[in-house]
Write a structure and sequence with these properties.
Blueprint: E1 2-6, H1 7-17, E2 32-36, E3 42-47, E4 51-57, E5 60-63, E6 66-70, H2 71-79, E7 85-90, E8 95-100, E9 103-108, E10 125-130, H3 131-139, E11 160-175, E12 179-199, H4 200-209, E13 217-222, E14 226-231, E15 234-239, H5 248-251, E16 258-263, H6 264-274, E17 286-290, E18 294-300, E19 305-311, E20 313-314, E21 319-323, H7 325-333, E22 339-344, E23 351-354, E24 360-364
Antiparallel strand pairs: 1-5, 1-7, 2-3, 2-6, 3-4, 4-15, 7-8, 8-9, 10-13, 11-12, 12-24, 13-14, 14-15, 16-20, 16-22, 17-18, 17-21, 18-19, 22-23, 23-24
């Protein structure tokens, strides 16, 4: 195998597929990046069997072939090369010669025979949306996916996001046992219904490499076990999570006894100041005292205390309720509206942050006020 390409194109491709390369694997070949020029293009692939990424880079193929190179060493070396054309040549023993200007080096490669290729996905049902819309909706929901160390939710399905298509709209939902994030997006066309659970890790990595704007599309295709994302010269395939997600619609409530309308930026700044009185690792909550036209946010810790008043519109009962400040801030940061509405029933019931069209709904559970 022999090909020539620019350093920038090669490094960009390596950075993309490296997001699917595991640090450790029982199959050492999966710790490699697969370079394939057996066709008419130069393709790079990373695959940990749960998430696979393939991208095509520009370059000139001189001799066709295939090789697997240890990902970390290869990417680190390419990163430190000067900005010039790179020639990569592989002999029959998979010894790989890399030349860039006056720099010559050799890496020991492996056969790609045992490499796990991306599964073929039949595009029986696909949807198309802008890359910017996809990136935004993931950012607006990914923070409430349960991580692998969080056992509070107790279900594997909470490690992913519920991905639903309803005709001309799409909805992403996530929950971790403490809060729920729901975002709805209007699609350009009408599509068949779909309902799958996509691993949060996969969505997080995909959103990092989707760099296009409102004019650049991403095509999402579904199969029984996988979901595929295609954009630009890149293809990403993720395994789906099996199981039943929580019934999101039953969690959404229109009942409330207290509705607070408040300036989002003012509330965020107030909560942010209150967190200065919380030591790292401490779960000290903030207390929100909702009165007729005033919201008093307070905290009392071993570091100190704070009370701050905010002007609000309150259409309902007065209420004293406590929250983990991080959970409120996570939701408020991804809302673009100048003013937000908070709906509450009592000090032990969830707080709903949503707009009138319910294009977004964030649910935050309060803490036990008596334990504060």
């Amino acid at each position: 195998m022999k090909f020539v390409c620019s350093k920038s194109d090669l490094l960009n491709g390596v950075n993309i597929v490296s997001k699917a390369v595991p640090n450790k694997s029982t199959m050492s070949v999966l710790e490699c990046i697969l370079i394939n020029t057996t066709g008419d293009v130069i393709s790079l692939t990373g695959n940990d069997t749960e998430l696979g990424i393939e991208t095509i880079i520009d370059g000139q193929i001189i001799e066709r072939g295939i090789v697997a190179l240890e990902a970390k060493g290869f990417s680190d070396f390419i990163r430190k090369l000067p900005d010039s054309d790179i020639t990569i040549e592989v002999d029959h023993n998979y010894k790989t010669y890399i030349t860039c200007g006056k720099i010559e080096t050799t890496l020991i490669g492996k056969s790609g025979d045992e490499y796990t290729y991306l599964p073929d996905i039949e595009k029986n049902n696909s949807i198309i949306l802008s890359q910017m819309s996809f990136r935004d909706i993931v950012k607006q929901t990914i923070f409430s996916v349960a991580d692998n160390t969080d056992s509070s939710s107790g279900q594997q399905t909470t490690k992913g996001e519920l991905f639903e298509v309803f005709g001309d709209s799409m909805r992403l939902s996530s929950l971790d046992g403490h809060r729920i994030s729901i975002r709805r997006l209007q699609l350009r066309d009408v599509y068949d219904a779909e309902k799958v659970i996509v691993p949060g890790k996969s969505l997080n990595e995909i959103s990092k490499i989707v760099t296009g704007g409102a004019e650049d599309d991403i095509e999402i295709s579904f199969s029984s076990n996988h979901i595929m994302f295609e954009f630009g010269k890149t293809k990403v395939v993720s395994r789906l999570i099996e199981g039943e997600f929580f019934d999101i619609d039953k969690m959404s409530s229109s009942n409330y006894d207290t509705k607070v309308t408040v300036n989002k930026k003012d509330l965020m700044n107030c909560i942010d100041r209150a967190t200065l009185f919380i030591k790292e690792g401490d779960k000290k909550p903030i207390i929100m005292n909702i009165q007729d036209s005033t919201l008093i946010v307070s905290i009392n810790s071993i570091i100190g205390s704070m009370n701050e008043e905010l002007d609000i519109e309150n259409s309902g009962k007065e209420l004293v309720i406590a929250f983990n400040p991080k959970f409120l801030l996570d939701a408020l940061r991804v809302i673009d509206d100048e003013y937000v509405d908070l709906y509450m029933i009592n000090a032990k019931a969830p707080c709903f942050i949503k707009n009138e069209t319910e294009s977004y709904i964030y649910v935050v559970l309060p803490v036990n006020f008596n334990a504060v």
